[in-house]
User: What shape does this take?
Amino acid sequence: MWFDSWSALLRIVLVGAASYATLVVLLRISGKRVLAKLNAFDFVVTVALGSMLASAVLTQDIRYADVLVGMGLLILTQWLVTRLTVSLPVQRRFITAEPTLLVRRGEFLEPAMTSARLTRDEVLQAIRSSGHGGLGSVAAVVLESDGTLSVITDSSTGDEQALANLAHWR
Assistant: This one.
């Protein structure tokens, strides 16, 4: 239970180091987007890569070549999906969530908050975290496609181009 053999430990060290190095190389080749916090698909790829790495290190029944193919397939699929979302707007809507306006000019948009499953307290926390004490100076709070809350103050709206694509902004 506590110790089987030195060869099992050696396998963990060797396969772990090789898998880690391979994953780093694949991530460098595939670009920064794989690690970016952008959408649900990127998140799934990141979690699956971590799971494959853990399985390769800890499960003796899984061959290193199987893990390499699996990691390569995930990164290739992620690359193909991102290429499609960049080129085809229809695919983009399917893969990437639209940003949601939660507060407009100091007013909570209750239907949007309910749809996003966010409470007033969670939105107020984001406002406080951005350094503001109330809704009076807040032009917008947006639930972004990556799940973060952006707080835009009245003084930082500028020409409002960044807000123009949001439903219910005008």
Residues 6-94 form one domain.
